[in-house]
Specification:
This protein has eight helices and six strands, in the order ββαβαβααααααββ. The chain is an alpha/beta fold. The protein folds into two domains: 95 residues, Rossmann fold (3-Layer(aba) Sandwich); 112 residues. A hairpin with a 3-residue loop joins strand 5 and strand 6. It is globular.
Length: 221
């Protein structure tokens, strides 16, 4: 989802661009991330999240270098900032950490190596941990769990989540709101993982035996 005047010109490999501030449209899948061009009249990050229907949508500012240097863009509600002069490859790098398909592909690779049941159980436990982190308001308790969240996030392919929580664990307390939003966003990704059929149900094979690695529903497209 790209919001602002740059929507007509910016194209990033590997991404479907939904242009305009009116949201992605009723028949479109929810956006992974919003890249907001900073111009006069640009909607606030909160407004962009409201339009998208996702209160935890990652919102990145596409802005001139001097705007990025002069503004505390995290305090404004942005989760990242990219120079407006960036080439498409740099934009792709900035957006890559939020790409849900990359996370789901990592989970698929882990399943192939360690088994469906083991990975599904780990993801479920991680989701419960993230729910606790999202709702925790005690700074000391949040800092205590931050390093563990960061480590597991990196292992499971939640790249942006892992980076934010690692920096928070190292003392960047101003990242708390972004870290909580990233946790909520990851919880939604985990729900997509389950809904797409990654939570397995045994199915009969051979002489009435069960195959514990079989998918209960159709695989992701």
């Amino acid at each position: 989802m790209l919001v602002g005047l740059a929507a007509a010109t910016v194209r990033v490999a590997g991404w479907r661009v939904c242009a305009g501030a009116a949201g992605p449209g009723a028949d479109a899948p929810p956006p992974d991330v919003a890249l907001v061009a900073i111009v006069r009249g640009t909607p606030s990050p909160g407004r962009v999240r409201s339009l998208s229907g996702s209160p935890y949508l990652p919102v990145l500012a596409l802005a001139p270098d001097d705007w990025i240097e002069r503004h505390d863009w995290r305090a404004l509600g942005y989760d990242g900032a990219v120079a407006g002069e960036a080439v498409p490859e740099a934009l792709a790098d900035a957006l890559a950490a939020w790409h849900r398909d990359a996370t789901l592909a990592t989970l698929d690779r882990l399943e192939a190596s360690f088994g469906v049941a083991e990975v599904a159980a780990l993801v479920d436990r991680f989701g419960a941990m993230l729910a606790g982190a999202r709702d925790e308001r005690d700074p000391a308790a949040l800092a205590h769990m931050a390093h563990r969240v960061a480590g597991i996030a990196g292992t499971l392919g939640f790249a942006a989540l892992g980076r934010l929580w690692l920096r928070f664990s190292e003392g960047e307390t101003g990242l708390a709101d972004s870290a909580r939003r990233a946790a909520a966003y990851a919880i939604a990704t985990i729900a997509m993982y389950r809904d797409a059929g990654v939570a397995r149900q045994p199915v009969a094979v051979g002489d009435g035996e069960a195959d514990p690695t079989a998918r209960g529903t159709a695989p992701r497209q």
